[in-house]
Amino acid sequence: MRIAVVGTGYVGLVTGTCFAEVGIDVTCIDIDLKKIENLKKGILPIYEPGLEEMVIRNTQKERLSFASELSTSIHGCDVAFIAVGTPPGEDGSADLKYVLAVARSIGQHMNDYIVVVTKSTVPVGTANKVRAAIEEELEARGVDIPFDVASNPEFLKEGAAIEDFLKPDRIVVGVASERGQEVMKKLYKPFLMNGHPLIFMDIPSAEMTKYAANAMLATKISFMNDIANLCEIMGADVNMVRKGIGSDVRIGNKFIYPGIGYGGSCFPKDVKALIKTASENGYEMKVLKSVEDVNENQKSVLYNKIYNHFGGSLAGKTFAIWGLSFKPKTDDMREAPSLVIIQKLLEQGAKVRAYDPVAMKEAEHMLGDSIEYGKDEYEALIDADALLLVTEWPEFRSPNFNVVSKLMKDKVVFDGRNIYEAADMMEKGFTYYGIGVKQ
Ligand code: UGA
User: Fold this and answer.
1) Residue nearest to atom 34 of ligand 1 (CA)
2) What domain range includes position 221?
3) Interatomic CA distance for residues 319 and 330, integer angstroms
4) CA 169 to each of CA 162, 163, 192, 203, 394: distance values in angstroms, whole numbers, following the listed order
5) Does residue 316 fall inside a structural domain?
6) 335 and 238 together in one domain
7) Catalytic annotation, pick one of 28, 77, 231, 266
8) Which UniProt key words apply to this protein (predicted)?
9) What is the 3-state secondary structure (H, E, C) of 132-153?
């Protein structure tokens, strides 16, 4: 089979590379010439564990190629994935201009039957707009070439995207025709070895599935954050409560970790977009509005603890921050809780020295010299009045606490992800604050 993947962002690049990995002939297309030139040399625009090696290997095997032109690359393809950005507009709705521009371009250049698949997260109804855009272009050319549109949402987690793609829990495809179904079945066959299902459905349901999945996960997190805050007030320990409820299979033990709020490029955007879609159609998503509200508050929870601990006087104090990315194993800082915390500390005249295993470049790009950067986690601690654990990178889990104690001015730890145990930390002589645990 031969496919084209348009858009070499996070989703497009992982998708194209993983299809090439199982032997499919893939061309990744992007209008950004510089990006394409770099990719040809094995230089990636994003960090994702394992991806670079996979891109280089598949390029060498000539199963993966890169092009800046859709015009000829689309010829001979069975499937074209649209995986370009859908940035949120001012009002929170997804901006479809890039998706529809690609659709038009496909309509201008396709010369045989093809399945055009939306992979970007797009609102319900987008596949119809894609179909209309392609039809318009075909009509303008005066040709009648059959095609199908499909919706095939991705469920990749940053940091684990390759594993998620190669061993998916499920693959969801919305497509109307049997011909389209057959093509998609053939394409995904190599990924179904572990017995997980390929679920076919109508297009609007597939489009909705993506939003419902992310909204449900965001809801779990905000719910647990709410419970954690109440635990603190009532003298309960949310770590215990989490274990207590997580062992009920109906609830499940995943995605119920309280913290300092969800971030990243997906949950915040998708929750907003679903609320917007509903309101545009006369419905109010009451639960999701609260999910958003709780999440915004949660980003300040750690700061509020710091403020109270220091009696409101933060000016001149130095805070060490461990972890800047919105979660481990990524350099992505979009909507990261670290940004909110840092901004609040700086507003109070505090000094921040941060360290992150991979997001330092991204941080310098976003924060410039408003903060200092440690060479490693220990350097960030020198003379710090407190340590703030913001992202739960594995290497922060068991540091040498003797060294930590010696480097810090004051032994205070604010643990935004509950990776340390309160009793243990107190035994080591630290003043410890977690989320939803007894102080
Ligand atoms: C999320 C979904 O998990 C993917 O299935 C989906 O494909 C993707 O969005 C997308 O729409 O593209 P991702 O944003 O990479 O993936 O990150 P997650 O691992 O889901 O984490 C999201 C946020 O939730 C992080 O800020 C994390 O710290 C937070 N989180 C997660 C918690 O606070 N508690 C938890 O128990 C789990």
Assistant:
1) 257
2) 211-297
3) 23
4) 13, 10, 9, 20, 25
5) yes
6) no
7) 266
8) NAD, Oxidoreductase
9) HHHHHHHHHHCCCCCEEEEECC
CB of 346 closer than 8 Å to CB of 371: yes
With a 6 Å cutoff on the Cβ, whether 6 touches ligand 1 is no
Helix (H, G, I), strand (E, B) or coil at 156: coil
- Report the alpha-carbon distance of residue 46 to residue 27 in Å, rounded: 18
- pLDDT tens-digit map of 293-330: 999 999 999 999 999 999 999 999 999 999 999 999 99
Beta-ladder partners of 415: 389
pTM value is 0.93
Closest residue CA from atom 20 of ligand 1: 157
Based on the structure, what is the number of domains in the chain? Answer: 3
Q: How far is the CA of 105 from the centre of ligand 1 (A)?
A: 33
ipTM: 0.94
pLDDT digits (tens, 9 = 90+) for 323-346: 999 999 999 999 999 999 999 999
Of the residues 165, 183, 201, the one at which a domain ends: 201
Active site residue 231: no
Determine whether the shortest distance from the Cβ of 228 to ligand 1 is under 6 A.
no
Distance 246 CA to ligand 1 centre (A): 18
